[in-house]
Amino acid sequence: MGILLRGGALVFRDAVIEADILVENGKIAKVGKSIDSGYSRTVDLRGRLILPGAVDPHIHGREPGLEYKDDFYHTTRAAVLGGVTTVLDMPNTVPPVDSPSRLLEKKFLLSRKSHTDFALYAVLYDYSSDLETNIVELVRSGAIGFKAFMAQTTGNLPPPSFKTIYTALELSQKLGFTVVFHAEDRECVEFFTSRVLASGGDSLRAHSDSRPPLCERLSIEHIVSIAEAVGGRAYIAHLSTASALKTIKRPRRSPTEIYVEVTPTYLFFDYEKHGNLGALVKVNPPVRDSRNRMKLWRAISRGLVDVVATDHAPHAEHEKKVEFSKAAAGVASIQHLVPLMLTSALEGAIPIGRVVELCSENPAKIFGLYPVKGSLLPGSDADIIAVDPSAEYVVSEETLEYKNKLTPYVGWKLKGKIDKVFLRGELVVDRGTIVVDRPSGKPLGREAKR
Asked: Computed from CA positions of residues 74, 184, 365, 309, in that sequence, does the dihedral angle turn out positive or negative?
């Protein structure tokens, strides 16, 4: 027996259409007006905006090995409560995901804890085993893609060499996976960080000076140059400077594909207006000035940004509530990705269809999950969120699902409250509350697109 979702305003990237959705066996079976309910259970969604569940391709669920920061159970509860129904988890855990056996072990571990569907990255660095063989075997074992950390990050993983990047993008061209880059030049960061620390800098502004836009630009130039030579799929994660977009050419009729991600941290915070938040908004790359922040919004409006994802990176209190220069970098934000972008749309900053494009459709396409994920089309998984556009609410610590209640969004007033969330047709959030306590998420691979 199916479920009929009656009378919502379905949001597509280029249109909003009032229609019904018939869900059968966890899939969207039909979309249209006045669908005959038959024996279906009916859910009245009149007055609600209906969007496909968001796909966040950049989260740090912290398992295995870093559960004191957070764990996958809490992270995915926060995700689904905020309308994110699919997450792609980063590999800089303990141990890092750098072999097929570690990938499969992590998949088994998280399968018992996840409230969202999920996929896993492998880390890209100079493996001790045969490079090409290891990459191919990781892809065959289900890696959704690879993450290359070009500068220091949690886990202090070494940056990949030229050979490794070239080989990975070459294989990316052949096999269709995506290589995600944390694009900061390591030597550049080390040079400027030592200068800033020697001068006593200890603030959001000083952090930006310690990892200036030059470091991001140098790394992106390196990545783009290799990608243009060999082809493949390169994804620049958490771009922090609008000026770096000039380095990223948009190839046409070319085997090279280069994608750009921006996070809410860079869209909503800058060191000029939010210096009082200190380490709560300390991230790598750092937040920049207000002028740069507005340029990033203009880049989104012009279609120069492909994805808005969180880089959700929770930490414990003892890592954040310390001297700024010693504080860990990272912001817990997955519970408010969709609400923040919905608020921006309802306030007129972007069209509502851009929320679907940036947070659902594009990430699903880039990582080979579309149209199973990121879509309201027949045949897609029934990952659906229903939003009350008239509701307003204030973020409070009590509403956070994170293990450590640390996020800069506490106290923010948001518009457009998520009322219901369906995961593969099952109602998992109702009236803004999780109603399915058992983890029901499933692991995914690029094969999901079939």
From this structure: positive
pLDDT (tens, 9 = 90+) of the chain, 450 residues, equals 689 999 999 999 999 999 999 999 999 999 999 888 776 799 999 999 999 999 999 999 999 999 999 999 999 999 999 999 999 999 999 999 999 999 999 999 999 999 999 999 999 999 888 999 999 999 999 999 999 999 877 767 899 999 999 999 999 999 999 999 999 999 999 999 999 999 887 899 999 999 999 999 999 999 999 999 999 999 999 999 999 998 886 655 566 789 999 999 999 999 999 999 999 999 999 999 999 999 999 999 999 999 999 999 999 999 999 999 899 999 999 999 999 999 999 999 999 999 999 999 999 999 999 999 999 999 999 999 999 999 999 999 999 999 999 999 999 999 999 999 999 999 999 999 999 989 999 999 765 433
* Domains contained in the chain, CATH given: 3-49+381-439 (2.30.40.10), 53-366 (3.20.20.140)
Distance CA 266, CA 281 (A): 9
Query: What's the sign of the alpha-carbon dihedral 123, 255, 359, 442?
Result: negative
